[in-house]
Design brief:
Number of strands: 0
Number of helices: 7
Low-confidence stretches: none
Strand content: under 5%
Helix content: over 70%
Order of helices and strands: HHHHHHH
Structural class: mainly alpha
Amino acid sequence: MSVQAQSRAAKWGWGILIALSAFLALNGVGLYFLSASPAIFEQDTGVPMAEVSRTYPTVADQVVREGQNISILLTGFGLLALAVALEGFRHGSRWVWNSTWVLVAWLVVGAFQALVVSGRLAFGGFYLAFAVIALVGQLLARRGLAS
């Protein structure tokens, strides 16, 4: 496999994808700890955590654990995307570039789910903005691929 010199635009594109992936992984770590917050619990469920804990103690614990499980998955996905983007930055391989479309698609689906299905404007806007950033990075990174 030959390594081709990448254009400045391609390096910027890979850099965007690296930063975005690292942020997603760090976001997952932060969400892990926020999942146990009574304020976040109430925001997500519409019911105070203390009230649910009194009435259904195992349900409150389950909701917190599910939020933490999702956070672990988000962290893992962010780290995987980071590893792929780092490989793209180093070598600019076509298979890596094709693989990073998963990140773009995942963010678009997340935006759709949050905006349309859940009606959560803040989360939907977050995912939509990140999808646009990832798309820009993806398109810039293409400039360094071998034909």
